[in-house]
Amino acid sequence: MLPLADYIFLENLRLTVKVGLSAFSLTDQSFPVTITCRVQVPSQKPNTDNYASSYGDLCRAIKKLTAPMKYESLLDMSAHLMVALPTEMPKWDAQHKLIYLSIKKEGGLLRAQYETITRNLRDVKAPPIYTIHGIRSSCIIGIYDHERIKKQEVEIKVSLALPHHPFDLMMPKDWDESVRERLESMLRMVDASDFQTVEALAEACVQHYDFVDELTSLHATLISVSVNKPSALLDAVSSGVCITRQSEDE
Name one Pfam family in it (predicted). Predict the structure, then answer.
């Protein structure tokens, strides 16, 4: 069990930042970015009415740090904030610690709603998690005769647990381009598929993605794929399956 901690937080801070590629692989584009973060602060003594650090200072520090930057990817952006925030925040000392950081980018991928990078820094063993949300496709899927005639919509989420690079700004420069190539390749497979079950489709997505990215050699330790079939049940907003597979090297 993790020890108790006081923290200040920002929830869904909206910024416009130059980060990664556009949906058409264009560079030097600005995107809507949403940041959620938590900073551990020293516990205040009873009957005191002051603060160790301010969430206003945290907001201003993030805005100042990100405004002039042109990030290669969400990985690059998260690594920069982890390193630079302590130098930009007033009153930061050994009792302060960035314990959670999540960055959401919209508009960077075709046929996907958004992508995120999440770092749970309270747990030193927790890996960075990169996720593509709301991947849309249509395919033959189902066990009934009428489901073998017309394609149905499926929505897929892919999460990769990445190697620990907590203070490494030298993230792979080709990461964003690799993300697009792997996503497009997986979607071609899904579009042409005719599985009977969402479980089989999810497994095929994991196998198609693979743990080692050939372009950047970045090695995922876990791959999680969620497949949602919106039309399956009238009484539920969504239904489906989520599977997680671990690299054999772990």
Answer: FolB
* Other Cβ atoms closer than 10 A to 180: 18
Q: What average pLDDT does the chain have?
A: 87
- In what order do the strands lie in the sheet containing 6-19? 70-71, 6-19, 30-41, 97-106, 114-120, 129-139, 152-161, 222-228, 240-246
Residue 156 contacts residue 225 (beta carbons within 8 Å): yes
CB 213 within 8 A of CB 151: no
Mean pLDDT, residues 164-169 taken together: 51
- Looking at this protein, which amino acid is placed at residue 184? E
pTM for the complete prediction? 0.90
Go through 85-118 and write b for each residue having 16 or more CB atoms within 10 A of its CB, e for each that does not. beeebeebeeebebbbbbbbbebbbeebebbbbb
Domains of the chain: 1-107 (3.30.1130.10), 127-249 (3.30.1130.10)
